[in-house]
Each structure stands twice: as structure tokens, then as C-alpha cells.
Amino acid sequence: MVVRIAQVAIAVVGIGTWEILVRADVMDAFFFPRPSDIAEQIGDWVSDGDIFDHLLITLTEALLALVIGSVLGLVVGFVLARWQLLAEIFDPYIKMLNSLPRVVLAPIFLLWFGLGIWSKVVFGVTLVFFIVFFNTYQGVREVSAVLVNNARILGAKEGQMLRHVFLPSALTWIFSSLHVSVGFAIVGAVVGEYLGASEGMGYLISEAEGVFDTTGVFAGMVVLAAVVLVIDLVVHRVERFLLRWKPDGAI
């Protein structure tokens, strides 16, 4: 309760200070629109109903990128963590691919997959994959050797080891990556839409920016931030449910 009160208090003080500084002309309203104007713009979008179509497109792209990127990251992370030889062979290639600037790849994906949904999904996958992969790889490698040896002594096969030892032990690492990946999946979808699309939140923000509508730009960012918070809350609830066997302080 104390944490929630503190979080709300910080938000109220920050937004209130922003509003006061703009009204007092200390901050230029053109560059920093008043929070009240931003809220009014969001209200207009909601009343018109247009924002829901754009938001649905962006969320669909982000969800697909999150699911595909997470599954690929989990599978590749588990495989390379369990087979050291493969990890050593593919290590330079993974580092090379991870070092590529994602923004440079976005226009290439637009050329390959067009202006539709899949160019944004693929771009988002490139952001999500490496986050989940590295956390999964490290999480599996960090599993206690004593626990692994005891399970093998009891006759556990590789499939049983994966289900009952490695996956539960690595869940904390995996969910840690998912909390970060949610934001990156949204970023991937929005950046892809910003560079080339006819719908979506990125397109909406780009249209506002094109006519120097800073209120619309900030309103779009606020909507996206709120959506990320809601999705992260869902991920946190799922995490607590799956890790309910751990002590409260360990989650």
C-alpha cells in the first residue's frame, strides 16, 4: 500500500508541476503541451473511436512479435545451454547478429515483407529474441549442479530434466526477460509503423508529428505507456502464479 501511494504521489506531483510550469510560460507549450491538453486529446480519440482500431493493430503486431520472439529465444537458449559444443560453434554468429543496429534492419524488412503487419512483427522479433535468448541461456546454465546430479542419480531422463529441473529453475530469468520484452515488442511495432504504415499507433504518432502536433505525439506516447503497464501487470500476475512455489521474497 505504501509503495502504491508513493507511486501515485510521484505521478501527481510530476504531472502537476508540468502543468503549472507550462501555464506559467516557464516551459514552451509548443514543445511541452499541457497534461490537461494531452488528456483532452486522448479523450477526443476515445470518443471518436478511431484510436481503438490503431491500437488493435499495434497490439496484434506486438503480441505476435512477443510470442514468436519469446518461443524462439526459449528454444534456442535451452538448446545452446544444454549442448556446449553448439554454443561454442554459434557464439560468434549470435554476437554478430545481436550487434546489428535494429533501426537499420527496419527499412529492409519493409522491402522484404511490405507495409503490412509482418514487417513490423519480424522487426519486433529481432528485438525480443535476443533478450529472451540470453536470459534463458544464462538461467539454464545457472541451475545448481547438485540439483542436476541428484536428478540424474534418481534416473531422470532429458525430457524430465527439462520439465522438472531446468525450466522451473530458469523461470525467474525467463520472466525477467519477458518484463523487458513487452516494452521492446511495442517499440518494434511502433517503429515499424512509424517508418511505413497506413494504420497503427506509430502511424498515428507519425501523422501528428508531420503537422507539428506535439499534443498528439505526447498523447500517443501516453497511450502506449499505459498499455505497456497493463501488459506488464498481466505478465507479473502470471509470474507470481507459476512461481507460487517459491518463498515470497524470492519472486
UniProtKB/TrEMBL annotation:
The keyword Transport applies. It holds the Pfam family BPD_transp_1. It comes from the Bacteria. This is ABC transporter permease. InterPro entries: MetI-like (IPR000515), MetI-like_sf (IPR035906). Belongs to the binding-protein-dependent transport system permease family. It is a multi-pass membrane protein. Residues 55-235 form the ABC transmembrane type-1 domain. GO terms for biological process: transmembrane transport. The chain crosses the membrane at residues 62-83, 103-134, 170-195, 215-235. PANTHER family: ABC TRANSPORTER PERMEASE PROTEIN HI_0355-RELATED, ALKANE SULFONATE ABC TRANSPORTER-RELATED, MEMBRANE SUBUNIT. Its main location: membrane. Signal peptide: none annotated. Gene3D superfamilies: MetI-like. It is found in: Cell membrane. Keywords: Cell membrane, Membrane, Transmembrane, Transmembrane helix, Transport.
